[in-house]
Amino acid sequence: MAHNSRQGGARSGQSAARDAHGAKGSKSTAEEASSLEPTNPPQGSETLEIEPPITPVPAGAVFGGRPQRSNKAIEGGGIRFEDPTMQALLLKHGAAPFHPNPVKIDPPFRTLVSSIVGQQLSGKAADTIWRRLEAAFAVEPSALLTARPDDLRALGLSWGKVSYIQDLSRFALEGGLEGIETLADDAIMARLISVKGIGVWSVQMYLMFGLGRPDVWPVLDLGVRKGLERLYGVSGKRELEALGERFRPYRSHAAWLMWRSLEG
Fold this sequence. Notes:
By secondary structure, the protein is mainly α. The chain has helices spanning 10-21, 28-32, 84-93, 108-117, 123-136, 141-146, 149-153, 159-173, 185-192, 200-210, 222-232, 237-244, 251-261, and strands spanning 72-73, 79-80. Helix 3 crosses helix 13, helix 4 crosses helix 10 (200-210) and helix 11 (222-232) crosses helix 13 (251-261).
């Protein structure tokens, strides 16, 4: 897994999330079907050496109830988790690139094209294809919609991704991305999943790494699920959603720390 610092914007952040996400695609059938089955911790990950020490929550613990209202932003920057396990990870790995920390807002079209390019690929492979795309075309809706499909395919994109990118380009030219950064998370989700090739996971990555939204809970992501199972003994969808309540309103930060925790 190549989780870099994720401070370099959506490209590095999405590459890291892709590596954690594994071979999952981004359309709903790939994200929402078998992706919620229990997973096993990575080899050699039975313990995690962190100062202050982290004590995994016993398997079978009950989660849910009211959000932890004492999770809060700290004057002068940063956040604090009431949950001791998550707070210890925060102290070890530092600030995530989401509000209320400083964030860089990236153009939605470029960020979403990047997400499509990276579906089912490692970060390294996706970055290689992305560089080829940038060298061959302006990453703009009009340029990619009018590009010959064969030319896009020659960059290393699958035929499916060529179709997805051109469908997104058409959507953007019709005004589908206008003002999207001003919408609430749920409204952005509803708008974008209508585009062929963009599913729940891809939209969540855009919310996090394109807009810096602080309270996204991507339980479809394999890396997030592995981290939560490893430290909290939770793997079922209902339990994962319930566990997330204790990290509001900073669930994006908690997810980022799960990716980082798998680095050791």
